[in-house]
Design brief:
The structure is a homodimer. With about 190 residues, the first copy, chain A, is mainly alpha-helical. Chain A contains seven helices and two strands, in the order H-H-H-E-E-H-H-H-H. The first copy, chain A, has helices spanning about 5-15, 20-30, 40-55, 75-85, 95-105, 110-140, 150-180, and strands at about 55-60, 70-75. Chains A and B meet through helix 1, helix 4, helix 5, helix 6 and helix 7 of A and helix 1, helix 4, helix 5, helix 6 and helix 7 of B. Chain B binds a DNA duplex (28 and 28 nucleotides) through helix 2 and helix 3.
DNA sequence: ACACACATGTAATTGGTTACATGATTTC
DNA sequence: GAAATCATGTAACCAATTACATGTGTGT
């Protein structure tokens, strides 16, 4: 045993949607959890074989036996997913290159950190727009599904962090600009 | 050429503190950027050799030639660091197992997600206390150093995100508890 | 004498991405 | 018939952690 995170991500996806191909699983990840999770084909296909070998998912041929291989989660698979869900979550050590560059900011010209911050701010704003839109769409189309409150929580987490990032970036830019007083024009 | 992130983290540390051993560099990382960056000895020692070979740092024996090997950054090293700082920061794809477990929350008993959230909240509170203390200490002891405004920014980022996390976790717990209405006692 | 911090290094393993290779099916 | 999308898989590579191995110096 001892499955990796990809395995549980796959089980999670299959717990909502039966009969998915490896290709489709990736699409699902991309269109649901992509802002805090990602999977590559290089991980998905080997892991599908592995999961099938362990009996946690089962291949179910697509009607005519030809074409794409679809998988569904088994009872054992659901049990494994549940057991994993109850385990303490792992905090993977985060490496934030953006913050590292800010931290070492004094070693470069002042514009360098200011530029990074402006990029960060712009990206944050853009993401905020995207998330707001996603939330609206999710409420319109998925709010009746049983999993919705949980999905919504993760979206709300993103929105809350983005708001905080925006607030911080404004303060940060002010401070950096004060460090570097503009020559009074005229 | 083409150095990895560890190399730049090392150059950054040496740009502030000359004459550090590999061991000491790790301590410095642990006591400064540890909340958004980490390095292991398994990365540091090979990278030091590499950097020395490239002439970006130079070994400088500790007085008596015996004992630990210390390194200092060279002019070329400073140039490399500056060039890297000016490059767009890389967004490493983040994987957040906590959020993934929340997202799949409906697949487990309601207490499972609630437990994760309570852990998250407690950890966030604890970190908030730590950061507040760190900020106080930094203002007391380092506020005159030229790099301080930049360090302070990263600390402020942490505090801002933690405040947002706390706010979110309270809202999230409320919602989850509503989903699971307590049986009225008596 | 013991424990702890200082100090260095390597090998094994993990966990992942990217690029490559291939081909079927659908849509314009 | 061309292009896009669906679909699967592997090999090469990368960056990093962990465990292991070893030893010195300092303080109690």
């Amino acid at each position: 045993m001892s499955l990796n995170q990809t395995a549980y991500a796959i089980l999670g996806v299959l717990s909502f949607h039966p009969r998915q191909t490896g290709y489709h699983i990736r699409k699902t990840v991309e269109s649901s959890v992509r802002y805090f999770w990602s999977e590559s084909y290089g991980q998905i296909y080997p892991t599908l074989k592995r999961l099938a070998g362990d009996g946690l998912i089962e291949p179910c041929g697509p009607a005519g036996k030809k074409g794409a291989q679809e998988y569904s989660i088994t009872q054992a698979g659901r049990a494994a997913l549940e057991a994993w869900l109850a385990l303490p979550y792992r905090e993977d050590p985060q490496r934030n290159e953006f913050l590292l560059k800010i931290f070492f900011g004094i070693q470069a010209a002042p514009e360098v950190a200011i530029n990074h911050l402006m990029n960060f701010q712009q990206r944050t704003r853009q993401l905020f727009g995207t998330f707001t839109e996603l939330e609206k769409l999710a409420i319109q189309h998925n709010s009746q599904e049983p999993g919705f409150p949980y999905w919504h929580l993760t979206l709300d987490f993103g929105l809350t962090q983005l708001r905080a990032s925006l607030e911080w970036s404004e303060r940060a830019l002010e401070r950096l600009n004060q460090l570097q007083p503009q020559p009074a024009s005229k």
